[in-house]
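G.,

No rush on this.
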Amino acid sequence: MIMSTGSTPDLLTAATSIDALVQRAVNAENLRMEEATAADLSTFLQRLEDSVRLVKYATSQTGSETKTALKTTD
């Protein structure tokens, strides 16, 4: 499976950006070592798209809360 991107100690000692994690996950060498299939990559892509939808929703909610707060202070 292509979800592993490093050892646990690495993750605990340094914050890594999501884009760097994805880049490492889809690196040709990592894909070869993990024996990732097209189905694995498709699943990974779907999970990333689901995550993007969650962030977009959270952003829209944050924007709504800000607008509501501004209206109540007028």
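When you get to it, here's the other one too:
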Amino acid sequence: MQQIMQQMGLGVENAVSQSGAATQGEILKKAMVDKTVAEGLEAYRQQEQLRQRAQDLSESLRQPANTCQAMALQGGLGNAAQSSKAKVSVVQGQVMKKVRGNTNTIDALETAHKSTNDNLCTAEEAARGVCRANASGKYANLAGADQNALFLFQAKDGSSTYEGERDGPQAKAAEGYVARIVAGATPPENLRSQDYTRNPQARAYVELMRRYSGVLSMAAYSLNQIKEARNPQAGLGNDTKMATISAPGFAPNKADMSMLEAVQRFIATKFSPDSMRDSAKATSTNQILRDIAQVDAFQLWVDHQALQQDSRTEALMALQLAMMTEKALRPQLEAQRRASVAAGNSQ
């Protein structure tokens, strides 16, 4: 009996020992699994953090969709503005030469008359037998353009770029319009060279002619500025990346355009349906701020152009005030001068 009990005790002890070892093994397995899972979760968290940081960095460096266009426009407009100013000085000299260079009024009128008759005859003039309408050729769509202010401000199709190439038919017609307004139908005739020094009256006429030219040059300068802002410049559409924009009202693939149309096209890209959708979906603060900075920089350029225009407007107003003052006060001054001379002679 004792032997049997001893054998059973040893069996129980062995069973308990084996059960404990098995339990300990399972615990160790679970611990290893938990460790593997924890390490996997930590690695995933680190990878997710890296991915999020990369995404945040990408978002912080993202530029507005038309950044390249804005940069190209800035450079292109700078060159275009300088080119326009240089061209204004040339056409200004041409107009003022017509004002100052008339030595034979008949010849001057004949030249202007022939130029319009050959190229810009209107249907009404043709019906009266004044000239023959130009139904074909490069001036076919410009009848009366040197008599109509519309062709100074736009093309016939409404574009802000003159029809044809730079200094092409419409630009020449606009120059004719400016000359017609400034130089007038009958420009003052200069004295012959031998008459200048003969008497004080001749010298006074020369000075009055110089003043006349100075007054008209102010109007000519403003009109030429308007013209050159619309004169097409070769390749400006490509230089400013405005040639291929998709916006309502603008022809695609237009390589040559005026400075004014390039500005209008850039504004259209900011106010196009695609741009409005992109703005509505934008969530990156940096991208939104960069877009605002671009618009502010463009506004600065526009303000500078407006400042120059305001200077011309102010000069024209000052000129008008001077002429009005002279018209009102000069007769009074002359009358008082004559009265003073008469009073002095009677004493």
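The radius of gyration is 42 Å. The chain has a mean pLDDT of 82.

Enjoy the weekend,
O.
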